[in-house]
Amino acid sequence: MIIYGKIYKMKDLKNSKLKHNQPKYIEAYQKLTKLIAGLKPGDRLPTEEELTQDFGVSRNTIRQALQVLHEDKIIYKRKGAGTYVSGTPYLGRSDISYYCDCRTTLEKLGFDVEEEEIAVTLENADTLVKDLLEPNKFSSIFYISKTYIDKHDHKKKYCFCEDYVPVNLDWEIDAKKIDKKSFIKEYERLGRASICNITAVPAGSFYGTKLGIEKYDPVLVLQQIVLDENGNRIYINKTYMNTNIPDYSILVNRKEEKLMM
Asked: Contact 108/73 with Cβ under 8 angstroms?
């Protein structure tokens, strides 16, 4: 429900100075996301003048931060009425590399997607996966793979995803009997931030087949160690992104440039 004219109180943000180890608009962006995390869709943000006073920065810095939020579709503007929250985004606590599952990311970019296939198997955890998560805490993982395709053109494949989810006391599930989509939603909703690494490699035969491209075509590989709201490492995501799709981009960290594919 849209609540016109409502302004969120700034009491939680007062006397909280911005740090100076990164651009001011990035720090303002981080403070704004903390503010928005406590709002509801349709809530109105404070004015630029109010934000300028409370953050102790220039109006231009606030405008840059608001523009980033607008590009991410987290806020929207009503001419002559102010700026409003457009939805409840994934907002992490650790840094600006907020985690967002692949389907949501594609939908935010304006693509109408669906899963072509989902596979869930129970496997032994290899050393790499265990070292990246919690060594000696588990010995098995759920391996989940899924391909996201265009809902209207099934030949258009956006990405192939692999998730490595530890089997522990919280995941006592029979891989052969579970509702796969519900299981995926359950662990994806816990993700709040991620430690990211991105590389470009040839697709190879396996991923080329999965994405419907030649094996020598480049793919971007985004590896994320996904964190929960307390900063605990909960699972690993690897996403192989089809670089042949036009107007397809990914933002890993705002301290870096946008990586266009």
From this structure: yes
Residue 238 pLDDT greater than 70, yes or no: yes
| Domain with 59 in it | 1-89
Closest CA to 10 of 27, 26, 29, 34: 34
Same domain flag for 35 and 138: no
Rounded CA-CA distance 147/158 in Å is 8
The CA distance from 162 to 153, in Å, is 22
CA distances from 27 to 66, 67, 71, 156, 187 (A): 12, 14, 17, 38, 29
pLDDT in tens, 46-83: 999 999 998 889 999 999 888 878 776 778 888 778 89
Q: How many separate domains does the chain show? A: 2
Q: Which of 16, 21, 25, 97 is nearest to 65 (CA)?
A: 25
Last-in-domain residue among 50, 67, 89: 89
What pTM value is reported for the model?
0.58
